[in-house]
Design brief:
By secondary structure, the protein is an all-beta fold. Helix content is 2%, strand content 57%. Strands 1, 2, 4, 5, 7 and 8 form a six-stranded mixed sheet that branches. The longest helix is centred in the N-terminal third of the chain and has 7 residues, at 8-14. The relative contact order is 0.13.
Length: 297
């Protein structure tokens, strides 16, 4: 466990982390004396719930002065990392914030002339997100990402982003509650949304089923033809909207299951073909320049 006075750089970084109960604080002053070798020991540990075991690692503790400085901001005095910790402070009143991943809690502590032990209950759990395809078909996990949002919408109908671009299989620590999850498979239109509840002291594993597949596009000349380079591709949805565009001999993309129109432009000729994407069934679509439907420009 390491305990140290907070630096201005660390204070600036920690401003990006949600600190429940603390809305405005300042970088440490160069004149401040946050920790004292002759002061009183404050012993801190944390649990996910009242029934859970003490968290042994991964904690970040922040100690704030209780009185605002000039400008109305609370001074950030010390930071400790690891598990249970001991911080030596002068007697007085402090705000202590405990962070474990994206979970956190804040408490006000009055330190007298004797050592004090404080156990903080974070009321938090874990969320592990995974993706699946129908019929247990293997998924391309490198193309799968999750965004985690607050469940509540603001006055504009928007949700506040908590953590973007979460890889499948990663466990994210969150305060207990309901969260809105957006799962993107590929970068076109295979998107699933779900509300998932995290319970204190537990890790919730949520599997999101995607009905999508990867398609690789080729424009060839004849059945045994080599894919033609410098081909411009467009994928059009049922309503006529252009969903994806690419240039190359054999671009690949992941599409939600459904019907699409594929348009290929090579030099001064334009071809199109209707295709169907079936969930979990990766496919190669070939447009034959000699037989495919050709469009007038």
């Amino acid at each position: 466990m390491s305990v140290r006075a907070a630096t201005a750089q660390e204070a600036q970084f920690s401003a990006e982390v949600e600190l429940p109960g603390i809305t405005n604080y300042a970088p440490p002053s160069s004149q401040a004396s946050p920790a004292s070798t002759t002061g009183v020991d404050l012993l801190l540990d944390a649990r996910l719930s009242a029934e859970a075991k003490t968290i042994s690692e991964g904690m970040v503790w922040r100690v704030f002065g209780s009185e605002p400085e000039q400008g109305g901001k609370l001074p950030l005095l010390a930071i400790a990392e690891g598990g249970p910790t001991r911080i030596t402070l002068n007697p007085g009143e402090y705000l202590v914030h405990a962070a474990f991943g994206r979970a956190g809690a804040t408490t006000r502590i009055t330190l007298g002339n004797e050592a004090r032990h404080e156990t903080m209950i974070l009321d938090a759990g874990g969320l592990r997100l995974e993706g699946v395809l129908p019929d247990k078909i293997p998924m391309r996990n490198d193309r799968l990402r999750f965004d985690i949002y607050h469940a509540e919408e603001d006055e504009n109908g928007e949700r506040r982003l908590i953590l973007p671009d979460v890889r499948p299989g990663r466990t994210v620590r969150l305060n207990a509650g309901t969260y809105h999850i957006v799962s993107n498979y590929g970068d076109v239109n295979a998107t699933i949304r779900a509300d998932i509840r995290v319970e204190a002291g537990k890790t919730t594993t949520a599997q999101v089923e995607h009905r999508a597949a990867q398609v690789t596009l080729n424009l060839v000349r004849g059945d045994a033809g080599v894919p033609l380079a410098d081909t411009a591709w467009s994928v059009v949805g049922p309503s006529g909207e252009v969903l994806a565009e690419n240039v190359g001999a054999f671009p690949s993309m992941i599409l939600a299951a459904g019907n699409y129109t594929v348009i290929a432009k090579n030099k001064n000729r334009v071809f199109q073909r209707e295709i169907e994407i079936r969930a979990g069934r990766d496919t190669v679509v070939k447009l034959d320049a000699e037989s495919a439907e050709q469009l007038d420009q």
